[in-house]
Amino acid sequence: MDIASVVGTIVAFALIGGSIIIGGGTFMAFWDAPSVMVVFGGAIAAALICFPLPNFLGVFSVSMKVFFWKVEPIKDVITQIVSLAEVARRDGLLALESKVAEVENPFIVLGVQMAVDGTRPEVMEDILRTELDAVATRHRDGKAVFDCMGRFAPAFGMIGTLMGLVIMLGDMSDPSKIGAGMAVALLTTMYGAIASNVVFLPFAEKLGFTNRQELLMMEIVIRGIMAIQSGENPRIIEQKLNTFIPPKQRASEEAA
Asked: Taking the model in full, what pTM does it have?
């Protein structure tokens, strides 16, 4: 589980709730079901208009990546590839077949199997990069749905506020109710800001980050597998792949 996402979401709502309590308000004063319906329902409806149904429905499983994303540490991926390179260098490419069962990363397994099968390098790289592009497209679609809802939520908040004002101004028979009516009307603007800045856009940014990390890992695997197939020295492969690690992190690991 990604603790940062959990803590960030809880802290954001806790700060809002704490501010209401410290400000002397009550939670019921900030609850209005029609406003929730307009903002969240409107943002979801807008996303349904913008994307095909399968893409929209897929966002619910993609959203789990915000809290449960897991990408292997780059150093661990490099270590696995270097280990495979040592086996290939010592016993030949066919010896990697016995090591496939020990590898959990399906992308590494795919590359190793093609190398063992004697797939031509250009074909192998083309297949691996096609897989990388497919993953990037799926992730980009999931992020785009959250981006879309993040953009539209404040607009539906404003629409809800205008609707509330129209309803309030349409019945001015009791001036004492104007203040309460105005407060309820403004709630939709607040809901729109919260939905956009606490939920939808932060989720989209986290999905974008996980996408970049996963694509970086896949790029490392592609270069590593291609180097293994071409028979490069494991130490040279390690040095090449270590360039993907930030210099400070590289230095601290070497010191350890």
From this structure: 0.80
**Of residues 152, 144, 129, the one with CA closest to residue 58:** 144
Helical ranges in 69-200 per DSSP H: 74-91, 106-116, 121-169, 178-194
> Tens of pLDDT along 202-238?
999 999 998 898 999 999 999 999 999 998 999 999 9
**Crossing angle for the helix pair 106-116 and 74-91, to the nearest 10 degrees:** 20
Q: Scan for tokens 């192998």, then name that residue.
A: 124
Q: How far is CA 70 from the centre of its chain?
A: 11
For residue 98, CA distances in Å to 82, 91, 108, 110, 112 come to: 16, 11, 14, 14, 11
Neighbours of 50 (CB within 10 A): 16
What are the residue ranges of helices labelled H in 69-120?
Answer: 74-91, 106-116
Compute the Cα dihedral for 216, 221, 222, 223 and give only its sign. positive
Q: Nearest-5° angle of CA 58, CA 64, CA 68?
A: 145
Residue 70 per-residue DSSP state = -
Residue ranges covered by each domain of the chain:
1-31, 34-248
